[in-house]
Amino acid sequence: MTSAGIDVHSVSRTYKRTSGSLFQRKTTTVQALHDVSFQIPGGALIGCIGPNGAGKSTLVKILCGILKPDSGTVNVNGREPFSQRQEHVRHIGVVFGQRTQLWWDLPVSDTFELLRALYQVPGHRFKARQKLLVDRLGIGDVLQQRVRELSLGQRMRCELAAALLHEPDVLFLDEPTIGLDAEAKLAVRELLHWLQQSGDVTTILTTHDLQDIEAVADRVLVFGNGTILLNGALGDLRTAFGSTKLMRLVTDSPASHPAAMLLKRIGNEQTFSFDPSIIPAADLLAAFAAQAVIHDVEITDQSIDEIVARMYQHHRGAQS
Amino acid sequence: MKFYIRMWWLFTRAALRTQLADSANAVLWASATLLGMLLEWATLWALFARFGSIPGWDFASSSMLFGLVRIAFGIAEMIGRGFDRFHHVIRKGDFDRMLLRPIPVAIQLSVAEFSRFGMIGAGAVAFIYGCSAAHVSLNLVSMVYLAAVISGGAALFYGLLMMQATLCFWTVDGIEVANAVVYGGQTAAQLPLDKLSRPLTFVFTYIFPLAIINWIPAKALLTGEITGLALAAPVIGWLFLGLGAIVWRMGVRAYTSTGS
Amino acid sequence: MRLLWLVFQMRMKRQLAYRTAAYAGIVTQVVFGLVLVAIFAAFYANGIKAPMTLPQVTTYIWLGQAFFAMTPYSVFPDAELREQIRDGSVATELLRPVDLHSLWMARTLASKLAPTALRCLPVIVVATLFAGMHLPPDIPSFLAWLLTTIGALVLISAFIVLMILTQFWTVAGDGLSRAVPGIAAATSGQLVPLALLPENIRVVFEWLPFSGMVDKPYAFWVGTRPVSDLPFVLGHQLLWTVVLVAAGRLILGRGLRRLTVTGG
User: Chain-wide mean pLDDT for chain B?
Assistant: First the structure.
């Protein structure tokens, strides 16, 4: 296995939106990706997050070879995706959470057979691989069922197996856990974890579910407005944007402090956010204790979700 | 190449299995299509019954035209239905999915559909009737020629379907018109196009070469003189397919570099 | 009712945006009109007496081209709806507090009316000025044509909604949507004016629903049908509309029940 991984250098991509008819059309240009560069070592599992329209899916399309960048270079395990599309797609696996690559009216096993022929996987190899994936994903019972009769969770497991049958060296997962129940989500994450351990496949996971990323990703790329806002470990995200903490107080009367921002108040319960580097928690608590009788107190980190939401906000603020 | 043919066959077999899952229904509706076609043929008969033949054309020879066009179009539709309904493929995002498979998209779109047998059947009935009523003597040469003409006609319509599909990369706005051309073309092609004014004849011979697959070869079969344009007709049909394929490739290329 | 009107307007607006289709459609229809007129001229050159004169047939052909967008076999308007029914996502439509059949009728009416409105006038003008089309013989004939054209539009919409609804049964619906255009084209008068067909065939076709979509209204404009036939024609259209709507509602009810039982 080459350990080349993925190398994206200075990639930009614009869309032309046309409206109106052939004869009188207006064209507006949308910058989907702007000068994006990053590297992913072979075998790593990278999470991509970002609000809708931030450029994630454009990037995935470019890496899959179905979209050509306006400028910049892309190298995926030694291949240039766009110019060698047909060769490239032979070595990649793709799962779109919203769409199926299985044949809707056929039993799952027939779909796998078709894929075997399509990717020209040798028979014995295919058998071993299929058995491995079927066991891992626990889909032995549904192989003879038609795809249309599967539940979403069963279908997603089959999709994953289908995308991995031909032993791709890169795997793209677009929202693989969307709409899944807790058990199915867990199964998907377990498989991803296993892939990551085996180190054969470089995986790119785009999602809105930060728990997916917390559970399995080595690193995270945060997208906003066509650029990468952050490229690093999840912990970096906390240090970069998550320095504030939350303090929840139950008091007999309202209290306040200039360094603490009131987030919400329900009856006697107030929640503040504060920055410990400006005012340490103990000092803040002392200040509140001087104003009111404190019945209960709780200090927590901000959740990743909140941090990311703040990051998007922050970014948008910097733009306007 | 062998691999592509095999893949095509595997896809087709899978599709046919689904379509034939409810075979009673499939046969029923293929017969309904056949009935519709025969009704159309009957209106042609009614016209000749009322007005008698027009110079050079009678019901028998018009039946040959009718049959030739249906057979050719039926074959094109049977293996080119994916192009005909390409606007659905684009709209549902299935096209991206197809690009991610390691064989050309055109092969994936050429998956055969069973239900056009009704149309081909009706065409064959009309054509065979026409030949026998017009006392066309079918010898080896004319049989080979006929096969070539049908393949050329199917190629022509297939090319047309490819062009229609290519249009969908830019706009679904024109799909209805393309449809009108394809289906209206069929209706027009069952009529003796040599009765038209000069500019129209020119259009249907050289620009949108419907005449190439209908009255020119039909005339040649009737007179037994397969020469000139009649001899070239099948080739022109195939050239039209080539043109369609080039346009299609350009469309795919433009789609991946412009996005949508 | 207000809601239906709103849906109708939205649909109209959307369809009217398809200008390119309209221009290209006009050109296409003119070309095919010329072809058909030339062929009929060749038939009439034989000098046989027929129930319609050549100018009448010519006018009839041009009407067929001008109003082609309205016919049920031009193009099925609601592709999205068909797909929704096929993949079962139509179940979400049940959440809307409206009568589904009426909603779809409104949508279909609009998507048939809009392209027709854009295209009919240019074709009529061009054909009248350059290609031998005639105007209606008198005002009453024109009004009869107008009324029955409205009737035809409603009838066509009811028919199309019914066709779309057959998609609940995948194979059957598919077969039907392919088998019907041929039958409709032949029996509606689109291929050959019904008056030119042999008497016994004509009588049968007259009773089928499709003649009410094409031949009957055209005949008023052309002048081959006396205005006194108006009540009969409207009655024919109304009767078939009622039948098709009733059938549509029946299928819709059964289709939805099937969907909710099997769980999409």
Answer: 83
The superfamily (CATH) of domain A6-20+27-239 is: P-loop containing nucleotide triphosphate hydrolases (3.40.50.300)
Rounded to whole angstroms, the Cα distance separating C211 from C184 reads 9
Q: Give the one of B39, B46, B115 whose C-beta lies nearest to C182's C-beta.
A: B39
Provide the residue type at C249 as one letter. R
Q: What is the number of domains present in chain C?
A: 1
Are C194 and C211 in contact by the 8 Å Cβ rule? The answer is: yes
Q: Which residues of B128-158 are buried (b: 16+ CB within 10 A; e: fewer)?
A: ebbbeebebeeeeebeebbebbbbbbbbbbb
Q: What is the pLDDT of residues A32-91, one digit of tens each?
A: 888 999 999 988 999 998 877 788 888 998 999 888 898 999 999 989 988 888 889 999
Which chains touch B (3+ CB pairs under 8 A)? Answer: A, C
The pLDDT tens digits of the residues spanning A244-270 come to 788 899 988 888 888 888 888 888 888
- Is A19 within 8 Å of chain C by CB? no
Interface-testing mutation among B176, B186, B193, B200, with chain C (most C C-beta atoms within 10 A):
B176
Chains that touch A (3 or more CB pairs under 8 A): B, C
Per-domain boundaries in chain A: 6-20+27-239, 243-301
How far is C133 from C130, CA to CA, in rounded Å? 8
DSSP state of C227: G
Residue A136 near residue A197, CB atoms below 8 Å: no
Radius of gyration of chain B (CA): 19
